[in-house]
Design a protein that fits this description.
By secondary structure, this protein is mostly helical. Helix 9 crosses helix 10. The strands form two sheets. It has a three-stranded parallel β-sheet. A two-stranded parallel ribbon has the order 4-5. The chain is globular. The chain starts with a helix and ends in a 6-residue tail after the last helix. The structure holds adenosine-5'-tetraphosphate. Adenosine-5'-tetraphosphate (AQP) binds next to helix 2.
Length: 376
């Protein structure tokens, strides 16, 4: 291992859980090689997360993920990226992808990520992600990928027509995190299954190569809005690629668009209940109450104490007003940042250089463990 690798992964790291073959689930069947200790098998307080530039960031992305990334900049070594490699697992128009990538970066900064306090970059600018993903394609088992619900949801009925990238998406996600030896991953509730798979991959790699190289990952699923649901269907998550724009609040929506979408949001005919138990079996009501709670920093019970008994007409007005007040400054800041794309690109390039200095030595070491000859 190079001195730079030791430097970049050393001081911030805490001790990882011992990873030995005995802890592996029965489905890991690869041969064990003699145990070698790796100097990089330490743990750390590094957090990593990413977001796809597959559309305009939504209120779901914001409440379930981005907003929770902000305070971690002050307590952890925080690494965040716009994951364009993930985005092309479904078709993206090239011009739109480039525009959306910049827009997503601007949104992250407008939401409170500070390129001086965190490492913020574009995934494709750091090649270690793709290099390690290939190794993980050869570590992960087909049976594991077959269980991934996101693939089933996104591929839909015509699975034969889905890209192979969509199928191995979780392997790239494991590489994103593990090429930084990050141990904490702030995500929305929908990503939990992928993180479990990343841990299976890390353990199998360690087991197969007889090392304790990759640490275990812990999801950080925070807040009462870990899963924000569609405004058109309270049983479906709000998603930036949902064909209906009415199903979501985009961070670029203006006051009128927010008010209209909330006014049109699906509800049931009953007034709001007085207590949380009354939300049982009312997914749309629960979702709107949850959104107001998340925006105002209250609990579901707190929101219902104020608004229980009201009809949805009155409640939706309050909700729209709160959303406009909260999201308006973010939208304004995004617009300001997008007026100077050169400055934005320069900040992202600097972020990529910092990310590369951490990721490349770890990826180099993974390749050495696998048996690849070094380039130099
Ligand atoms: N509805 C949601 N509620 C809470 N959190 C959510 N996240 C996404 N939707 C919700 C969280 O946002 C982060 C970034 O997500 P992503 O862009 O990497 O992919 P995704 O989960 O597939 O999000 P989308 O918006 O549904 O994108 P598309 O439409 O492209 O698939 C993640 O931490 C995710 O949990």
């Amino acid at each position: 291992m190079s001195a730079s690798a030791r430097r970049s992964s050393g001081p911030g790291l805490i001790q990882s859980r011992p990873l030995d073959g005995t802890a592996l689930p029965a489905r890991h069947s690869a041969p064990r090689s003699p145990k070698r200790s790796s100097p990089m098998a330490q743990t750390n307080t590094r957090v990593f997360s990413g977001i796809q530039p597959s559309g305009v960031p939504t209120l779901g992305n914001y409440l379930g993920a981005i907003r929770n990334w902000v305070p971690l900049q002050d307590t952890h070594e925080a690494i965040y990226c716009v994951v364009d490699l993930h985005a092309i697992t479904v078709w993206q128009d090239p011009k739109e992808l480039a525009r959306q990538t910049r827009e997503m970066a601007a949104a992250l900064i407008a939401c409170g990520l500070d390129p001086a306090r965190c490492t913020l970059f574009i995934q494709s600018h750091v090649h270690a992600h793709a290099r390690l993903a290939w190794i993980f394609n050869c570590v992960a088992r087909l049976g594991w990928l077959n269980r991934m619900t996101q693939f089933k949801d996104k591929a839909g009925k015509d699975r034969e027509a889905a890209s192979s990238g969509l199928y191995v998406y979780p392997n790239l996600m494991a590489a994103d995190i593990l090429t930084y030896h990050a141990t904490k991953v702030p995500v929305g509730d929908d990503q939990k299954q992928h993180l479990e798979l990343a841990n299976d991959i890390a353990q199998k790699f360690n087991h197969d190569y007889g090392v304790t190289f990759f640490p275990l990952i812990e999801p950080l699923i925070q807040g009462i809005a870990a899963r924000v649901m569609s405004l058109r269907d309270g049983t479906k998550k709000m998603s930036k690629s949902d064909p209906s724009d009415q199903s979501r609040i985009n961070l670029t929506d203006d006051q009128d668009a927010i008010a209209l979408k909330i006014r049109r949001a699906k509800t049931d005919p009953e007034p709001l209940p007085e207590s949380e138990a009354g939300l049982e079996g009312r997914p749309e009501a629960r979702n709107l109450v949850g959104i107001l709670a998340a925006i105002t920093g209250e609990t579901h019970a707190g929101v219902l104490r104020h608004h229980g008994g009201k009809g949805f007409g009155a409640f939706k007005e309050v909700l729209a007003e709160a959303l406009v007040a909260h999201l308006g400054p973010i939208r304004a800041e995004m617009n300001r940042l997008l007026q100077d794309p050169a400055a934005l690109d320069a900040a992202l390039r600097q972020g990529a250089e910092r990310a590369d200095a951490i990721a490349t030595p770890i990826c180099d070491e993974a390749e050495r463990l696998v048996g690849f000859l070094p380039r130099k």
